Amino acid sequence: MKVVVLGGDGFCGWPTSLHLSSRGHDVTIVDNLSRRNIDNELEISSLTPIRPPGDRLAAWRQVSNHVIGFRNLDVARDYDRLCALLEHERPDAIVHFAEQRAAPYSMKSARHKRYTVDNNVNATHNLLAAMVETACEAHLVHLGTMGVYGYGSTGAPIPEGYLPVRIRDGAGNWVDREILHPANPGSVYHMTKVLDQQLFFYYNKNDSLRITDLHQGIVWGTQTPETERDERLINRFDYDGDYGTVLNRFLMQAAIGYPLTVHGTGGQTRAFIHIRDTVRCIELALLNPPEAGDRVLIRNQMTETHRVRDLARLVARLTGARIDFVDNPRFEAPDNDLAVENRQFLELGLRPVTLEEGLLQEVMEIARRYSGRCNPDRIPCRSRWRRTHAAQIGTAP
Amino acid sequence: MKVVVLGGDGFCGWPTSLHLSSRGHDVTIVDNLSRRNIDNELEISSLTPIRPPGDRLAAWRQVSNHVIGFRNLDVARDYDRLCALLEHERPDAIVHFAEQRAAPYSMKSARHKRYTVDNNVNATHNLLAAMVETACEAHLVHLGTMGVYGYGSTGAPIPEGYLPVRIRDGAGNWVDREILHPANPGSVYHMTKVLDQQLFFYYNKNDSLRITDLHQGIVWGTQTPETERDERLINRFDYDGDYGTVLNRFLMQAAIGYPLTVHGTGGQTRAFIHIRDTVRCIELALLNPPEAGDRVLIRNQMTETHRVRDLARLVARLTGARIDFVDNPRFEAPDNDLAVENRQFLELGLRPVTLEEGLLQEVMEIARRYSGRCNPDRIPCRSRWRRTHAAQIGTAP
């Protein structure tokens, strides 16, 4: 299958591109290297020594004999070049990772909020408009987030995109309907994925585009079998307060003898998935597209849920690290429960990598091997969700 | 009350600004004159001879002794100047009309779709980010659209923003909730107002901004008591296929002896409001803001519903005009019913101007008086909702 991967140089996009290529798909990466530029802005770098795109792709060709194409193109800005690419490549599928993806980064300042909204909405909308304009019949697979649903609610498991409800008809009787799950995003970043959902709904309805939206949990782990084949293929590892996600951050902190920083009480329950499952899920989604005429297909891409303080305790037990409870920068309830339906990927054959399977060690080995590259000043999260935290809320909004 | 009116040079913004000024409020208009520039692009002009902003405002000062301020500023682009304005003016309220507001224009081409999304989303988000950054405590009143709800559904009247539903809790029991009404927009333009709703939801939740979102029906009529005070104050009148809304377009067509062009079967039922009620509703909304800590207050700003072919027959009966049924450019069901709740404004004291009250004559007099300025070539709608209309749908999507 001919696949264009938008954002194929990033933490999820790169291993996905290699995985699809190794499975025999014809892959072209589109990326404007914005994630590397943000590293420059934040004066940080991936813990792992990632190579420039040209070096990575040359190494992949050497070790696998597969060729991956590359275009440096800004999906949110270079609309005409995007159309030319779609007309030239005529892909069977497009995987869309090309969005700013860190919640703390999106909350750093008005400039960061505005960049995140402008970039993410225009990237997604340019893609949809270009697909219509070029009569591109590709299946679009988009990376959404579990964060569109919000946490809390009734205690029922979060369904895969669509919620069965009862509403009143004209005669006042309750009738059954299924609606797009009401959104309750927790940051400007998460909100942009809510906006994406509405864009997908409309272009699916009006232009019959075939779209899969994957609501992904927090990704942990670093390497996949493909990125491990050569050090020049290594995946990026973020440990900083903006881009480092919670479990990887704890493992990194343990590896360098820094206390595990738990935000607030650590009572937040979150959904997780290992990077090895991310890349498998993307291929499963590509191989199982919606039919022509179907509504947007939404799948929950996560494999387990954990409470943040339980993760901290697990890592502390494994490593002897100390736990520090620090102020929560986010404006959120101190505790939440979370149950999530994820039958779709299990039924398609996914056998999840779970925390118990020893891959925690793999991350810690990476963290230890490259700990000399770590700048501990960058570990704390300095973004704040509100001007003042005086009015921190007590319950889920 | 000190009020900043974003988009205060447009069809609704201008008479609103005059009405608020005449009622003693201290008004500053912000506008980048994009609507006048679109007239240039479309090679069309308002049927009525609208004056440049400076002339209009000088005339208002002469006839009313009130001063309205004016800033030529692009809310979607000039973020720093927007912040400076908010810090300088410290308004009590902001009325936000500063969006591209024509569905057919938003569907003309990929460029028009992209402009509408980019302009409308960034205008609204810049405003929200600027209000947070400058600690602006103004009440924000936004012009939404009835089109966010979509037409059709269960036959129950469309509520004012929030829909009572039953959902299952963790034990499988149905529990009552109230959710933001599911969105089903009919064009890229309408979709941008759906995106606005999600922006408002988030900024209200995270930053406690006080926001009223007014879901307005199709506005008819031209003049208000204030715009009638001097010909230099005249309001714009759009009769073209992009910006001319259905009832005003019929009245114009009748005035120049052009057949009334009904799209499809004319079975579409739409919600309407007279421009005189629009300006009254805005002041009522300003005088009745949500309390600090309230969710986004949503009001339906419409006064009656009509089926399009009934309006055509009414105008034909009054004028002797012929009715032409032409292809529907929109991708929509040929027929729909529509019932809408609008108790909020009635309870605040609105006494609606209805079609029966003779103001149809007022519009036809305007249309006749300026018919020499009409270019009949511009009357048909040339936008198309889909690349091909082969697959026109038979029922509401």
Quick gist of this model?
2 copies of one chain form a homodimer. Chain A is 36% helix and 18% strand.
Descriptive account of the structure:
- The structure is a homodimer of 397-residue chains.
- With 397 residues, the first copy, chain A, is of the alpha/beta class.
- The first copy, chain A, has one domain: NAD(P)-binding Rossmann-like Domain (Rossmann fold, 3-Layer(aba) Sandwich), CATH 3.40.50.720.
- Chain A is built from twelve helices and 14 strands.
- The first copy, chain A, has a seven-stranded parallel sheet, sandwiched between helices. The first copy, chain A, has a three-stranded mixed sheet with strand order 9-11-13.
- In chain A, helix 6 (110-133) runs parallel beside helix 7 and helix 8 packs across helix 12 (359-369).
- Chains A and B meet through helix 6, strand 6, strand 7 and helix 7 of A and helix 6, strand 6, strand 7 and helix 7 of B.
Record the SSE blueprint.
The structure is a homodimer of 397-residue chains.
Chain A: E1 2-6, H1 13-22, E2 26-31, H2 34-42, H3 53-64, E3 69-72, H4 79-89, E4 93-96, H5 103-106, H6 110-133, E5 139-145, E6 162-168, E7 174-180, H7 188-207, E8 211-216, E9 218-220, H8 246-255, E10 260-263, E11 269-274, H9 275-287, E12 297-301, E13 304-307, H10 308-319, E14 323-326, H11 343-347, H12 359-369
Parallel strand pairs in A: 1-2, 1-4, 2-3, 4-5, 5-8, 8-12, 9-11, 10-14
Antiparallel strand pairs in A: 6-7, 11-13
Helix pairs in contact in A: 1-9, 4-6, 6-7, 8-10, 8-12
